[in-house]
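User: Can you help me understand a structure? I only have the sequence.
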Amino acid sequence: MNAPIMDPDLLQAFVAVAEHRSFTRAASALNRTQSAVSMQVKRLEERLQAELFHRSTSSVDLSAAGEGLLGYARRILSLNAEAVGRVRAHGTDGRVRLGVMDDYGTMIVPPLLKDFIAGYPLIHVEMETGLTSTMTDRLGEAYDLVIAMHPEGRVEGELLRTEQAVWAASTAHRVEELDPLPVALYPQGCLFRSWAMQALDQANRPWRLAFVSHSLSAVEAIAAQGLAVTVVKSGTFPPTLRRLTARDGMPRLPRAEIRLHRAQNLSHAASLLADHLVAALRQPAS
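Assistant: Let's start by predicting it. Here is the structure, written out as tokens:
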């Protein structure tokens, strides 16, 4: 015998009566007539061949069968709404311009974009990687969204997570023992560049700028060959390098904040991607 099909409209009426403990209040909440709600509940009871409420002149209470059904009804209605929303959103189209730091753009964001595009195949995402210190100034003009790095304590944008800046060097060479210390860094405007120089100067550690590049992979390759030390994020620390600490004679570096910036008047497509990135990247408050 096939199980009866439970119409979402009937379940909605049932849940409303169960929550309000009144056919009158349920009808008002659903913007329907009381007789219509009563009829829908009666139809549901007939399909299930069970009494869902104990009715009296003063109260409406769930029966044992009604109590057993309520949780399932809520789940069915929730899944129904989720399915409808997903199907409708699946047809959302548009273009989103995303700016992000090089390491996040190569290691962190791509799998998140894969998941996003799977749900919204008609949305086209254009991603640019590089120094984000100037990207936020071009929000709305060149970018819809920017994932940028800031010193701790900034209030602009939405905080996603914190990252500890750490020194890194070759696994095969003790380059940190050289004097002056060769350093591979990024161009002016990079937060890690200014932090590294300031930390070494404050520690009275002689150093020289051995290599400068916009390319994260190039800087890390120089460090991996033992030609210089560099600075990377703890969360994206490359396996080809070795972490340096105070035991290696290196001064401690500050922590950075990773924040999402949204342009004003975002399109629906951009808002969807922004919410997806926040949900995936935001660390729970400790």
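Now, to help you interpret it: The mean pLDDT is 90. The chain has three domains: 8-88, 92-161+257-281, 163-255. Let me know which part you'd like to focus on.
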